[in-house]
Amino acid sequence: MTGRRMLYAYTWLVIAWLTLPVLIMIAFGFNDTPGRYNQSWDGFTLKWYGRVFELDELTRALVTSLAVATVTMLVAGALGTGIGYALGRYRFRGSGTVNLVMFAAISSPELVMGASLLTLFVSLGVGPGVVTITIAHVMFCISFVAVVVRARVLTLDRSLEEAAADLGANPWTTFWRVTFPIILPAVSSGMLLAFALSIDDFVVTNFTAGTTTTFPLWIWGSTRVGLPPQVNVMGTLIFLVGVAIAVTTSIRSRPARRR
Amino acid sequence: MLRRRLAPYLLVLPGGLWLLLFFVVPMVTMLSLSLQQGDVVTGYVFTGHWQTYVDAVVNYRTQLVRSLIYGGITTVVLIVLAFPVAYWIAFYGGRRKATYLFLLLLPFFVSFVLRTISWRQILTDEGILLGPLKDAGLLHQEFHVLGTPVAVIGGLVYNFLPFMVLPVYVALERIDPRVVEAARDLYADPATTFRKVIFPLALPGVFAGVLMTFVPASSDYVNSAVLGSSSTTMIGQVIQSQYLTSSNYPTASALSFTLMAVLLIGVFAYARALGTEDVMKVAAR
């Protein structure tokens, strides 16, 4: 039994190690630092929460990130759901190829995806900016949404759809009234995943952004000069919202799973 | 009837087209650009100039090899660190399995760049970790972690740990407890049970984890840029600066294609041997 207890302690140690930088980030959002150099502890303050939108460029970067993530979530959500549904529901020629391309897109190095998109945009003479960032984000999010939706469609009970058809519903009505509500949790968690991947992305964005700045790019650009406490505050708020959404969705999906 | 047969194609079409245009086509463009000569101002002409590859690999072999070594070390360290965690959650997590997995994924709600910078803050020479140790005389004043391979590999291990824990966990969770019981009934001691039964059954998960960590770790440039120094430069940093600073597109494309080829040979060998399901399953979580 001591082995088991050691494993227990070890797991918590790993969790603590993973969480440490997050706690440091949160703590330094409350640091009463005099200038931009937020390195050493100078006492507790809440003032940065009041002055969080004081740096215009940083605020603009955050707004850009949120806008890109929202559009990505919607577009990748729709396109990925289409692929995921088709792969889970039908057997068709070419499904193997679609699977392989998605597998390649999930496991390719982000660096290479970003670099190759840059070469495409350069050779087409397309100027990089918000549009190219969004195109890139949708590209790497589609496969993740599709995989999540496919997993759910595969477990779908076909007899429910047959029952609807027997009761005289046409395929269109059957899909929207029966199938879609069942796969909706997967669609929404796929879309949340896309939002999270997009708002956090640095590598692909760095290649496709040009002079446009997103939240992670702004942070990257100011590492050398030192991060202002506002970054910690924004990071903390994003963290809390993300955790809150994850917790509520998992609680809401629980009763459904038990049934 | 025809509409039913067309349905899957119509559903796949928009997303498939997007992936074709912005994933497959760019790869081809990159391959082609790597074989062209010219510059940004006068434009590029396709010349089939393979010498670019030779020059690029010869000039940056140090960084290329270093990246693969860092990626390899990171992966090995990850297997050792992640396996016990996955094991404990899978076999003793009980009703709290989901909670533990959630706690492991908690850092992911903070931007990757920000997390890495946070480590720099922790590891600076007079920071909250080294400062007190130096003041207490436990460490030499000259001792530092930042800028060393240890800091870079530590950052990589930190950032990719959950990608190893999850697939190993998925594999361990699938093991039928009766198989383990059977081993005990046949008088296998715990060590033998682990070596002969549990570990072989967890191997597909370990392989999936290797795939999901080795590829991003060896092509990463954030950790090395934030936590390393000029002596830890990785190939990702070279590619990034060739593209974005020097605009030396053929060389940059040749380097990323070489990196991609080295990594993808591994990936596709993996897919052929073990299938794509384990990775897809983890991605679906």
Automatic annotation (TrEMBL), chain A:
It comes from the Bacteria. GO terms for biological process: transmembrane transport. The keyword Glycoprotein does not apply. InterPro entries: Bact_Polyamine_Transport, MetI-like, MetI-like_sf. Residues 62-249 form the ABC transmembrane type-1 domain. The chain crosses the membrane at residues 7-30, 61-88, 100-124, 130-149, 178-199, 231-251. It is a multi-pass membrane protein. Keywords: Cell membrane, Membrane, Transmembrane, Transmembrane helix, Transport. One of its GO terms (cellular component) is plasma membrane. Coiled coil: none annotated. It is found in: Cell membrane. Pfam families: BPD_transp_1. Its main location: membrane. Belongs to the binding-protein-dependent transport system permease family. CysTW subfamily. This is Spermidine/putrescine transport system permease protein. It comes from Pseudosporangium ferrugineum.
From TrEMBL, chain B:
The chain crosses the membrane at residues 67-89, 101-123, 143-172, 193-215, 252-271. It comes from the Bacteria. PROSITE patterns: ABC_TM1 (PS50928). Residues 64-270 form the ABC transmembrane type-1 domain. It is found in: Cell membrane. Keywords: Cell membrane, Membrane, Transmembrane, Transmembrane helix, Transport. Its main location: membrane. One of its GO terms (cellular component) is plasma membrane. It is a multi-pass membrane protein. Gene3D superfamilies: MetI-like. One of its GO terms (biological process) is transmembrane transport. Belongs to the binding-protein-dependent transport system permease family. CysTW subfamily. This is Spermidine/putrescine transport system permease protein. It comes from Pseudosporangium ferrugineum. The lineage of its organism: Bacteria, Bacillati, Actinomycetota, Actinomycetes, Micromonosporales.
